[in-house]
Amino acid sequence: MSSDEILLKELKILFVEDEVNISKLLKDALSDYFFSFTVANNGQEGLTKFKKISPDIVITDIMMPKLDGLEMTKKIKEINEEIPIIVLSAFSDKDKLLKAIDIGITKYFIKPFDPEEVLEYLIFLAKKLNKHRIICLNQHFSFDNNTNNLFEDDKLVNITKREKQFISLLIENKKDIVNIEMIKSRLWNEEKITDERLRTFIKRLRAKTSKELIRNIPGQGYLISPNDI
Asked: Is this structure's pTM higher than 0.70?
């Protein structure tokens, strides 16, 4: 396996496309290269899956039912401003494509596109993302953005999937305080969670890691090592 293939194997891709033929073409051509290649059929489904799987790269069509690619992109950028988003566009979508560029897409391909060209660009992105993969949280703890694994002095810390999502959410917001309602919404979706259950959840995570790693701002929310990231 080449170094490029190794980098791709660590990435999660979300592909949002309502045209079944195009969706199948790209998935058949590219899915084996990646850790996961998730397909959504419209913008609303794309947004839901984005929140669920936290992909590394999003590829999306513009014209889709329920929620178009532009509106979905705006909502995704509100969650993660840095996420690379590749747009697939028809020539007839010229005005919408210009809007997509304005809201911060990373790259666009005009249909019909060559899957090999898309793959080449994804390799370029993979190399770029790899440079920002490991985040040092403080002197002892680091977090792998690709795998969502937490390390203490280079040793893997055994934490749950939800605990990984929580740390990822705090890192995503960097020096901002993440309020309690956002934490409940992102980690438990529609499930009703009491403040006491959230405090217990965080207490358990601190017991596995360090009291200094996650900081409570009374009455506001939580931060993760704000002085160190």
From this structure: no
110 with 44: CB under 8 angstroms? no
Spans of all domains in the chain:
3-131, 134-224
Task: Give 134-224's CATH code, choosing from 3.30.365.10, 1.10.10.10, 3.90.1200.10, 3.40.50.1000.
Answer: 1.10.10.10
Identical fold between 3-131 and 134-224: no
Question: In angstroms, rounded to a whole number, what is the distance separating the alpha carbons of residues 11 and 36?
Answer: 7
Q: What is the pLDDT of residues 23-50, one digit of tens each?
A: 999 999 999 999 999 999 999 999 999 9
φ, ψ (nearest 5 deg) of residue 39: -110, 135
* Residues of the chain below pLDDT 50: none
Q: 3-131 belongs to which CATH class?
A: alpha beta
